[in-house]
Design goal:
The protein is of the alpha/beta class. It contains 7 helices and 7 strands. Helix 5 links the parallel strand 5 and strand 6.
C-alpha cells in the first residue's frame, strides 16, 4: 500500500486523498460499464460496520449482496448454491399452501429452522440466476475467500482497502479507512449511484427489494347482513352524547345571612327554618371578675339564739300576784 500512503507520522500512516479520489472515479466508470452490459454487480461486506450499508445500497439498486457470511464456493460452486435456493422456494411453498401442518411439530420446527438459515446466508443472492460481472468489496483482507474465488473466475474487483490490505489481487483500489462508517457510506453510495444512473439511461427500472418483514394483519371486516336479516335486526338504541345530556340540577349557592328571604308562592309549605349558629363572642370583650365582692365587716352578725322581742316602753308591767292570808 506504499503508493497510496501520503506520509507516516507517529507510527500512523496517512492515506493520500488524491489516490482515493482517483480510485472512486475509476471504480464508478467500471461499475457503469458492467451495468451497461446487463451484468450483476455484487456488493460484499460482512463486518459489522459494513453489513447495514451493503444491504441498503444493494437493495436500492436491485443487485445481489452478501452481508451475513460468505459461504465457501458461492461463486466457484454456484450449482450447489442454486440447489439450496431451490430448496428455499420449496419450503416457502409448504408454508403458503399449509402442507407444512401435515408434519409433526418436531419436523415443522426443523423445516422452519432450515428456512431461516438459508435466508440468513443466501437471502441476498436468491434473485441472482447467473454469476456476477463485478464485485464491490469492503475490506478485502477480511473477505479473502470472496477475493480468491473472483480471481479464479476472472471477475473484476473494486475494493475499499486500508493500509493493512494487499492490493495485489484488486483491480481498482480505493484507499480509505474500512472501519469508518463515513468512508464506507461514501464508497458504497458512489458505486450504487453509478449503477442506478446506468439503469436509468437504459430504461430499465431496478427491481424492488423483497420486504423481509411480515405484512401487517388486515383489520377484520364487519359482517354485512342481508336485507331480510337487516329488517329483523333490532334498532340500535341511540345514547345521547355528553353535550346533549340534560344538565344536572345545580344546587343554589348559600345565601348570605343579611339577605331577606325570598317570597314563596302561595300554597307552598314553608320549609322549617334551620337553626342558625349563635354569634361568636367577641374576642376583645372584658373578662368577668372571678371573685365576688366581699361583704362589709361592720355588718351585725346574727346571734346564735333568736332574741325575744322586747316589750314597748309604754306598756305597764303586770301586777304581782296577791299573797294569800
Amino acid at each position: 500500500m506504499a503508493p497510496y500512503i501520503f506520509k507516516k507520522r507517529n507510527l500512523i500512516h496517512i492515506i493520500d486523498l488524491r489516490a482515493t479520489l482517483r480510485g472512486l472515479i475509476t471504480g464508478r466508470e467500471l461499475a457503469r460499464a458492467v451495468a451497461t452490459q446487463g451484468k450483476y454487480v455484487m456488493f460484499v461486506g460482512t463486518k459489522k460496520q459494513a453489513a447495514g450499508p451493503v444491504q441498503r445500497e444493494a437493495q436500492r439498486c436491485g443487485m445481489p449482496y452478501v452481508a451475513e457470511r460468505w459461504l465457501g464456493g458461492l461463486l466457484t460452486n454456484y450449482v450447489t448454491i442454486r440447489q439450496r435456493l431451490d430448496r428455499l422456494v420449496e419450503l416457502e411453498e409448504l408454508e403458503e399452501t399449509g402442507q407444512i401442518d401435515l408434519h409433526s411439530k418436531k419436523m415443522i420446527s426443523s423445516l422452519r429452522r432450515q428456512k431461516r438459515k438459508i435466508l440468513r446466508n443466501l437471502g441476498g443472492v436468491r434473485s441472482m440466476d447467473r454469476l456476477p460481472g463485478l464485485l464491490i468489496v469492503v475490506d478485502p483482507a477480511r473477505e479473502r475467500i470472496a477475493v480468491n474465488e473472483a480471481c479464479k473466475l476472472g471477475i473484476p474487483i473494486i475494493a475499499l482497502t486500508d493500509t493493512d490490505g494487499d492490493p495485489a489481487d484488486i483491480d481498482v483500489v480505493v484507499p480509505g479507512n474500512d472501519d469508518s462508517f463515513g468512508a464506507i457510506h461514501i464508497f458504497l453510495t458512489t458505486m450504487s449511484e453509478a449503477v442506478l444512473r446506468t439503469l436509468a439511461e437504459r430504461g430499465v427500472a431496478p427491481p424492488q427489494p423483497e420486504a423481509e418483514a411480515q405484512p401487517e394483519a388486515e383489520a377484520p371486516e364487519s359482517p354485512q347482513l342481508e336485507p331480510a336479516e337487516a329488517a329483523q335486526a333490532p334498532e340500535a338504541v341511540q345514547v345521547p352524547a355528553a353535550d346533549e345530556a340534560e344538565p344536572a340540577a345545580q344546587e343554589p349557592d348559600a345565601l348570605p345571612e343579611d339577605m331577606p328571604d325570598q317570597a314563596q308562592p302561595e300554597g307552598a309549605e314553608a320549609a322549617p327554618e334551620q337553626p342558625r349558629a349563635a354569634p361568636e363572642q367577641p374576642r376583645d370583650a372584658p373578662e368577668q371578675p372571678q371573685d365576688a365582692p366581699e361583704q362589709p365587716q361592720d355588718a351585725p352578725e346574727p346571734a346564735g339564739d333568736a332574741a325575744e322581742p322586747e316589750p314597748a316602753g309604754d306598756a305597764a308591767e303586770p301586777a304581782p300576784e296577791e299573797e294569800s292570808v
